[in-house]
Amino acid sequence: MNSLDKEHKSKDTEAHSEKQNNVNAELENAKKIAEEYKDSLQRLQAEFENFSKRTEREKQEYKKYLNASLLEEFFPLMDTVSEGIKHAEKANNKEMKHGFESLEKQLGKIFEKNGVRKIETRGKKFDSNLHDCLMTTNEKEKKDGDVLEEFQKGYTLHDKVLRPAKVKVNKRE
Asked: pLDDT 10s digit of each residue in the chain, 173 long?
């Protein structure tokens, strides 16, 4: 092999090596871009899954309290029924009392079925989240902050207060 052939072969090898380096660099660049797209797609998929889960939670929460305003419409009716029971007792009218108690029981079942619960007051400690204090009194034989009397029933729907109970609270001086 002559020197011209060797030189030509050396240039061919260099050119081939340079081409190979360029191809390798392009391949590495393409791999890097593909990996970035893959990461981006995985993040987008995770965000979409989180969005779907959050939307489902919000939908369930919305359904949970959907009937709240409708159920609140029945509170005055329940108050009237309770008053009817008291008046029937005062008048010693057993039939009227029985009728009002039946109505109260039916309304109570409707409330219970829909997640409405009465707020307990008798013998309980005053809780500003559940009770609305209308009056205070000082009874020495009772503990400070005890609920002494209920003026109006309060109700919760699941964990949300729809109407606080209106009460009288013992306040020791």
From this structure: 556 565 656 666 776 677 787 888 888 898 999 999 999 999 999 999 999 999 999 998 888 888 888 999 999 999 999 999 999 999 999 999 999 999 999 999 999 999 999 999 988 999 999 999 999 998 888 888 999 999 999 999 988 999 999 999 998 77
Q: Measure the CA–CA gap between 143 and 147, rounded to whole angstroms.
A: 9
d(C-alpha 32, C-alpha 40), whole Å: 12
Domain segments of the chain as ranges = 1-66, 67-114, 117-173
Residue 152, helix vs strand vs coil: strand
| CATH domain 117-173 topology | Nucleotide Exchange Factor Grpe; Chain A, domain 2 (2.30.22)
